[in-house]
Amino acid sequence: MSVTAREIRLASRPTGWPTDDNFAFADVELASPSAGELLVRNTFMSVDPYMRGRMNDAKSYVPPYEVGKALEGGAVGEVVESGVDGVTPGDLVLHNAGWRSHALVSQYTPLTPVDGVSPSHFLGALGMPALTAYVGLLDIAEFKPGETVFVSGAAGAVGSLVGQFARLKGAGRVIGSAGSADKVAHLKNKLGFDAAFNYREGDVRELLTRAAPDGIDVYFDNVGGDHLEAAIDSLRRDGRVAACGSISMYNEKELPPGPRNLYLLVGKRLTLRGFIVLDHNDRFGAMAKEVGQWLADGKLVAEETFADGLDNAPAAFLGMLRGENTGKMVVRL
Q1: What is the pLDDT of residues 73-96, one digit of tens each?
Q2: Number of structural domains, the chain?
Q3: How far apart are CA 10 and CA 55, in angstroms?
Q4: Domain containing residue 105
Q5: 292 belongs to a structural domain
Q6: Are β-strands 92-95 and 102-105 bridged in parallel, bridged antiparallel, or unpaired?
Q7: Which one of 30, 40, 162, 290 is separated from 274 by 20 to 30 angstroms, measured CA to CA?
Q8: Are residue 136 and residue 274 in the same domain, yes or no?
Q9: Does the pLDDT at position 140 exceed 70?
């Protein structure tokens, strides 16, 4: 069997914010899978902030995307034809050949469908974002019950889970920042945050102080910039920062100065630790067991924002960078 697959390629490297001109569509013929390969039809694909970094020609923890070649990222696919014993057409797999309609894959994770749970959650609340939130909060920030936790980008894929995990693990107070009044209401009314604020409505330092007048113990950083500076001011002695991302700076042509109050790390005995989720795959089993139970029990809200059709993947990616999603941004093919 052969299929004509549609794929999205990196046409050029963006300067500042990506545009439609940085993407190109192409049709390619895929042959039947060889031994050890699967031909899959993608049903869901992920767009994530880290992909913006891979569009630059810069050394990082993963290689940059190559100009003229297909982009890649997490995807759920249905097996069309199998070259693997024990894997049959119709089986679901998780793999890294997103940004295309079909793919030949040799590295994949078999998925067992969960009653009442969309397979798209394996890209979000049961996937990489969930592991990022779980490890960042519990291992990197060493969260303890009773502590006050502040999460930036709290309505996004990772942040929305961090806040809920903290609440379910016994946080004394959970605070989030988001970019609209609707998202602030979502955090408080649907996700159970104790307080939330719209960072567009004023100085982040003042808004955080108002939400946490007694200070914070843990800051989960998805944004960087003024949020990190404000959190350093608010952190109590022995406070911890889990540095996950700095989306506020990903598209800047010139980087702004770093936090002006780093001197506070000394007197407050603060810990600021960056992490990459790929280093913590050994924790996936523990995460999946606990988070899966929360989902099954209805204790966890797994919000998703869908874009339909592969042709809309670039727009979904750009929308995610602008914060247009609530929860995980997913492209439904």
Answers
A1: 999 999 999 999 999 999 999 999
A2: 2
A3: 8
A4: 3-124+302-332
A5: no
A6: unpaired
A7: 290
A8: yes
A9: yes
